[in-house]
Amino acid sequence: MDHAQLEAFLTAQTKRQGGIGLSAEQAAALSRFWKSQRVRVRGSLLAQSRWEPSLRGLSWRVDLQTGDSYGNTVHRGPVALMELELGRDGQDSEFVCLEFDETKVNQVLKKMADIQESIDRIVCRT
């Protein structure tokens, strides 16, 4: 909430009818608090909402098998290799390596599209 949003919110709260709004003194106190503590409040909220361990890095590549050292040219198809770097603040990272054939890549992409659709539905409702 920036300064203009804060002022608009406090003005609306002080004008509420029926004694359920804020007094001018309460609004001034909230304004002073927010201006002095906004960064700390934001940092605290972010820390509380962060999933741990978090994804610190992702690298990937696609390998194609062209043959083996014996001249065998049997082709398995492309293989996607993915490495995830996971970690908690203040601790060393852990690495997870994943290998996907084309079918598995398509399944993961389908699941990701389903997740995106679900997120879009939720966001559009609000």
UniProtKB/TrEMBL annotation:
<dbReference type="InterPro" id="IPR033776">
    <property type="entry name" value="COMMD1_N"/>
</dbReference>
<dbReference type="Pfam" id="PF07258">
    <property type="entry name" value="COMM_domain"/>
</dbReference>
<protein>
    <recommendedName>
        <fullName>COMM domain-containing protein 1</fullName>
    </recommendedName>
</protein>
<dbReference type="InterPro" id="IPR017920">
    <property type="entry name" value="COMM"/>
</dbReference>
<comment type="similarity">
    <text>Belongs to the COMM domain-containing protein 1 family.</text>
</comment>
<dbReference type="Pfam" id="PF17221">
    <property type="entry name" value="COMMD1_N"/>
</dbReference>
<dbReference type="InterPro" id="IPR037351">
    <property type="entry name" value="Murr1"/>
</dbReference>
<feature type="domain" description="COMM">
    <location>
        <begin position="54"/>
        <end position="123"/>
    </location>
</feature>
